[in-house]
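Progress note, sequence design subtask.
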């Protein structure tokens, strides 16, 4: 199975949900959210910072992405960030969540996305990094997260996504990777973490994303999956990850972007999703929480802003995503917007 550059580009661009004009941006507390993100970086010794130390690479990606979407990226020291990111690279080529931490494919994608955002991919030894990712592919086409061998479709998506950004997807057996993802499809149209695993909105984003990048969406039953995803919307307008669970801002991205990729986003009430996200804002101190009246955090602020900053238009099909690309800065780093990663929040809290 072979993909030329334009095919890869079109597959990746199908993630671009539409122009950055935003259907709720006018009601976002832009300045307060930006100040909240900047304040988190300055708090080195509080409880939240300590318990998140091993996730700092993910946190850097969430925070920097949020600042860029809010038009505030110029407030950070980019050279200092690049230096820190590179100090987290292991001799194997992979990246850890912080300096001195073991490499993992999750943190590796965050590192690549941060460097892409800052237009600094040229500091990488691309082949060394690509070889590290390729080394995590197993004989059945699945991917392990690190040397310890845990297998999950999140890692399949991350490997395919990262190698696509690096233009090195030929380093892996794409056909086997696709076949493994397809083997995780369930009778309800969704996808699980492994074959037979329960369908989950986060896993669905990963599997559909991997299939989209590799030009393999024909394996998806779009109507069946679209119906399952639309059933994730609850009375408040928010979306949950699986049946009988509470809504959470982060699923707004995973559900809506999955619906975009299968061209079924018009089946859901997008305005109610937007209102749910706005209700999760801390209008006094900035930040967005998982649901109204809960404590804010960087992770949910990132996803809330990401969804709010994108117009989930019915007219934005995968092919038309190319035209949307022309409406923003065409340099490669813009691709970071369309490859939102799955991270340790999803790893540990499967709501």
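Output:
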């Amino acid at each position: 199975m072979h993909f030329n550059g334009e095919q890869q580009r079109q597959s990746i661009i199908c993630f671009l949900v539409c122009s950055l004009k935003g259907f709720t941006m006018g009601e976002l507390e832009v300045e307060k959210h930006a100040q909240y993100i900047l304040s988190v970086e300055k708090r080195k010794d509080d409880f939240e910072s300590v318990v998140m130390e091993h996730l700092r690479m993910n946190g850097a990606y969430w925070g920097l992405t949020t600042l860029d979407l809010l038009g505030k990226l110029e407030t950070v020291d980019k050279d200092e960030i690049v230096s820190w990111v590179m100090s987290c690279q292991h001799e194997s080529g992979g990246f850890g969540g912080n300096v001195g931490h073991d490499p993992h494919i999750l943190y590796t994608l965050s590192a690549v996305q941060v460097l892409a955002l800052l237009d600094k991919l040229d500091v990488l030894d691309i082949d060394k990094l690509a070889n590290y990712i390729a080394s995590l592919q197993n004989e059945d086409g699945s991917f392990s997260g690190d040397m310890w061998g845990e297998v999950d479709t999140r890692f399949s998506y991350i490997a395919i996504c990262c190698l696509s950004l690096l233009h090195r997807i030929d380093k892996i057996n794409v056909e086997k990777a696709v076949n493994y993802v397809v083997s995780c499809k369930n009778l309800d149209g969704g996808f699980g973490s492994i074959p037979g695993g329960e369908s989950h909105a986060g896993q669905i984003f990963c599997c559909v994303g991997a299939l989209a990048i590799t030009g393999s969406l024909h394996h998806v039953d779009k109507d069946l999956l679209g119906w399952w995803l639309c059933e994730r919307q609850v009375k408040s307008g928010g979306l949950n990850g699986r049946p009988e669970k509470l809504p959470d801002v982060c699923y707004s991205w995973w559900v809506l972007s999955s619906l975009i990729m299968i061209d079924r986003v018009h089946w859901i009430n997008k305005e109610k999703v937007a209102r749910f996200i706005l209700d999760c804002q801390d209008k006094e101190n900035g930040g967005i929480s998982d649901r109204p009246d809960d404590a804010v955090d960087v992770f949910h602020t990132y996803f809330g802003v990401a969804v709010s900053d994108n117009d989930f238009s019915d007219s934005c099909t995968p092919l038309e995503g190319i035209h949307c690309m022309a409406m923003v800065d065409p340099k490669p780093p813009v691709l970071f917007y369309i490859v939102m990663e799955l991270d340790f929040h999803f790893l540990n809290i499967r709501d």
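The chain has one domain: 5-348. Work on this subtask will continue into the next period as scheduled.
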